[in-house]
Amino acid sequence: MKIKLFFYHNYQYKLLEEELNQLGAQGYKLKNIGRICFFQKTNKPLYYTVQLYKKEGRNRVEKYYNTELFLNKFLEKDFSYKGRIDLMHVFMGDENKTFQESPIDMNNYFGFKYSVFAAFFIMGFALLLSSGFVPTYISSYLTNGSLLLHFIPYFIFLFFGYYFSVVYINHKLLNKKIDKLKEENKYKKEKKLYKIHNIIFIVITVITLFSIFDDSLQRKTIDIKEHPIITLKDIGMSNYTTEYSQTHSLLIPTSYQLKQEINKEKYTFLQVSEYQTSHTQMIIDKIMNNPEQVIAKKIEKYNENRYIGTFEDNKITTYIIKEKDQVIVITTTIDLRPYLDQIEEFYK
């Protein structure tokens, strides 16, 4: 079994044919055609031809009829149809046969949709402006995987940005390329560009899979006896469910997250996060700049190393304790004002 990535554009159809025939010479049989292809090893050489074809006709019936005529030219010569990538149709056979190519209509086969190109970059810049390159929410820093996952959209933007840019430039130079493509079967420069597509795609895929794996690996459920943390019981409440976990990352070496739910229907809960890190001011700044992540409309300094967050009716929904190498963030849907002394007593 062999897996190949194909990111060829229509004008690179001969490149696709060349690569398929190199695999066919080694006995690799194409199971499917697409951006990701699977090949099965056989004991005999196989031959491939790639033909450009765009459905033509005044209605659906006529387009279907013309497509059948196009396919039958190859099926009648014992070449099986393996499918298509865009307008590149792939056929496979047991014998090496030549097929007469139809005249190339540049407008039909090599057209470039500038609207798609423009829309992509507008969306990309909107992403940069809306979310910011540097993560703003503390949750993105809890594991190395979650931090990498924040950057995945930018990696994808880089991949498609490169791909569309190459297609755009090649389309602008297409008038010069067509004759050259017909006269020669050498595409050294095109192959380099194509390989870069694949490398970027593979790197993004590996980073994404690693990020997901690392994020799940660095989160583990622990018992509250392993690391005591303030709970609803400590402030005089009961009848709740508890979720308690520990995470690790480079920026926040150790953190603990406790969530206790009192009333699911009324959405009443307590959430406590302890961040053990030397980057305490970074955490404070990010919370103060984005108070919505801790259910607060604004965060204010309470005293030297204490901060409070209020939501509505001057109700304290967030209490933050800053120590030398630790930040404790207590968030709840109830008013914390009556419990501040108990919280301070616990963290003495």
Brief characterization of the structure:
It contains nine helices and 14 strands. The protein has helices at 13-25, 60-75, 106-109, 114-131, 144-172, 174-183, 188-217, 280-289, 340-346, and strands spanning 2-5, 28-30, 36-41, 47-52, 80-85, 88-93, 219-221, 241-247, 254-263, 268-276, 298-303, 306-310, 316-322, 326-332.
Overall average residue pLDDT: 79
Topology, number of strands:
14
Q: What is the makeup of the main sheet?
A: 8 strands, antiparallel
Order of adjacent strands in the largest pleated sheet: 7-8-9-10-14-13-12-11
SSE arrangement, N to C:
EHEEEHEEHHHHHEEEEHEEEEH
Question: Which oligomeric state applies?
Answer: single chain
Helix count from the secondary structure assignment: 9
